[in-house]
């Protein structure tokens, strides 16, 4: 009890150890007199000037407060003076705590008042998206008999929490700017947790977004190394949106037919494949004045020449589009000529205000009721399969082509076939 609550107070706490009798290996008895034994450390590392503390001392103190055997990745030691005075020593761990994704995880930064331990309730001193932070915060402006109920709505604690969050974000920003390799290690360990902050912390949303890293069509394979600032720096002057795609995996994203027109034009697309990314992008709609746009949505901006050409080609193939829509019936919301396909025959997209097909699958996998979304089938009339369909006079064979097209588009998008046996049967007839 003393070590937990009073280990760092600035005067020694001693406990009387009564006299006792000890025996050596030969059975001889020795009388040990009673003595006073110090049971607290009586030393608070965070109260000392930074210039007097060695790196080894910082590391050993981290291991003491976090019960981690590895040294920390980084730390920030600061003393704040003004209307609210407090000292903080905050650490970024190198590895994730075992309970990082546990809903009931509560241990985090420890709160001290005048060196006396008060609590280590993570939610009071750090938001959930920074629950991996360890360390201590010592305030002289809170009463020693402060209760958890009082802390629920305490302005001093709110100020300390806000300042500490900004301090951690500044530490991560400096790491990202000056120590890219170290930040890459942090992102691989805690990136998924940090993403939660975009929706949880509106006041720091822009700063958190600046720390996010993504895989990209112009990045280094599946490594998440591209920031939104990197993307904007490489954008052409006439591009107004940041494009991204969310899929079940990196391979599914990079192979998606939705990317074909972007490859042709040399436009970069961010590749997202984390399960939390749908939630992330629902809250992250803009960064640095640029809106973020999913390439799987129905509307894509193109130049006037392409828009005009697309309308002309749509008119030429109006009969084919109408026939496909009648054949597929309520499986699709619409059929239209695609502006994004170059090599693939077809793909599925959803409306601007509709739930994406990927999110619909995630909800179904989680056992939640997902809204029924009928996709839009976009076709590439220049593809040989569509030209064959356009010239097909046999209605049954045309129906086989239409349903195989739809099935291929669903599979390419990462979905499942409603009737795989029917799909195989139609495909066999076309190949026969």
CATH class of the largest domain: Alpha Beta
- Largest sheet entry: 5 strands, mixed
User: How far do the termini sit from each other?
Assistant: 81 Å
Query: Given the helix and strand composition, which structural class is it?
Result: alpha/beta
Q: In the residues, how many domains can be counted? A: 4
Helix content bin: 25-40%
Spans of at least 5 consecutive residues with low confidence = 1-7
Gyration radius over CA: 31 Å
For this structure, the CATH topology of the largest domain is Ribosomal Protein S5, domain 2
Strand content: 15-25%
Count the E strands: 17
CATH arch. level architecture of the largest domain: 2-Layer Sandwich
* Tally of helical segments: 18
Oligomer designation: single chain
Global mean pLDDT: 85
Coarse shape: elongated
Query: Numbering strands along the chain, what is their spatial order in the largest sheet?
Result: 5-6-9-7-8
What features would you describe in this structure?
- Helix 5 (155-178) packs parallel to helix 8 (205-211) and helix 17 (395-412) packs across helix 18 (420-431).
- The protein has helices at 2-6, 55-66, 122-125, 148-151, 155-178, 180-194, 197-200, 205-211, 228-234, 250-254, 260-265, 277-283, 304-316, 318-328, 357-365, 384-390, 395-412, 420-431; strands at 14-17, 20-23, 29-32, 35-38, 74-80, 86-92, 107-113, 116-121, 134-139, 215-216, 241-246, 270-272, 286-287, 290-294, 334-337, 346-349, 376-379.
- The N and C termini lie far apart (81 Å).
- Helices cover 39% and strands 18% of the residues.
- The protein has 432 residues and is an alpha/beta fold.
- It has four domains: 2-38, no CATH class; 45-209, Ribosomal Protein S5, domain 2; 213-295, Rossmann fold (3-Layer(aba) Sandwich); 303-432, Heat shock protein 90, C-terminal domain (Four Helix Bundle (Hemerythrin (Met), subunit A), Up-down Bundle), CATH 1.20.120.
- It has 18 helices and 17 strands.
- 29% of the residues are buried.
- Strands 5-6-9-7-8 form a five-stranded mixed β-sheet, with helices on both faces.
């Amino acid at each position: 009890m003393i070590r937990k609550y009073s280990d760092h107070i600035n005067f020694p706490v001693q406990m009387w150890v009564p006299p006792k009798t000890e025996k050596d290996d030969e059975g001889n008895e020795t009388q040990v007199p009673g003595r006073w034994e110090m049971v607290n450390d009586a030393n608070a590392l965070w109260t000392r000037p930074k210039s007097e503390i060695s790196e080894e001392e910082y590391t050993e103190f981290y291991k003491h407060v976090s019960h981690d055997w590895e040294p920390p990745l980084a730390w920030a030691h600061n003393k704040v003076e003004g209307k609210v005075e407090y000292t903080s020593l905050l650490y970024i761990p190198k590895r994730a705590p075992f309970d990082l994704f546990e809903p009931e995880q509560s241990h985090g930064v420890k709160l001290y008042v005048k060196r006396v331990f008060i609590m280590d309730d993570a939610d009071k001193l750090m938001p959930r998206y920074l629950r991996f932070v360890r360390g201590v915060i010592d305030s002289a402006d809170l009463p020693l008999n402060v209760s958890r109920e009082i802390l629920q709505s305490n302005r001093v604690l709110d100020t300390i929490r806000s300042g500490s969050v900004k301090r951690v974000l500044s530490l991560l920003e400096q790491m990202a700017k000056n120590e890219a390799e170290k930040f890459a290690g942090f992102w691989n360990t805690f990136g998924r947790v940090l993403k939660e902050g975009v929706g949880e912390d509106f006041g720091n949303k822009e700063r958190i977004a600046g720390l996010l890293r993504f895989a990209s069509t112009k990045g280094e394979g599946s490594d998440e190394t591209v920031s939104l600032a990197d993307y904007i720096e490489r954008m052409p002057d006439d591009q107004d949106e940041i494009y991204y795609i969310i899929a079940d995996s990196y391979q599914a994203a990079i192979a998606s037919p939705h990317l074909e027109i972007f490859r042709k034009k040399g436009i970069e697309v961010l590749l997202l494949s984390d399960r939390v990314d749908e939630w992330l992008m629902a809250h992250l709609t803009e960064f640095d004045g640029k809106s973020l746009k999913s390439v799987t949505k129905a509307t894509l901006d193109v130049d006037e020449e392409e828009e005009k050409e697309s309308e002309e080609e749509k008119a030429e193939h109006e009969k084919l589009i109408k026939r496909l829509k009648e054949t597929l019936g309520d499986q699709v919301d619409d059929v239209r000529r695609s502006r994004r396909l170059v090599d693939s025959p077809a793909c599925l997209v959803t409306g601007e205000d509709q739930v994406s097909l990927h999110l619909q699958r995630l909800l179904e996998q989680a056992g939640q009721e997902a809204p029924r979304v009928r996709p839009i089938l976009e076709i590439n009339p220049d593809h040989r399969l569509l030209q064959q369909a356009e010239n097909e006079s046999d209605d049954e064979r045309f129906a086989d082509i239409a349903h195989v097209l739809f099935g291929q588009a669903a599979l390419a998008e990462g979905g499942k076939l409603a009737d795989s046996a029917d799909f195989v049967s139609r495909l066999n007839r076309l190949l026969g």
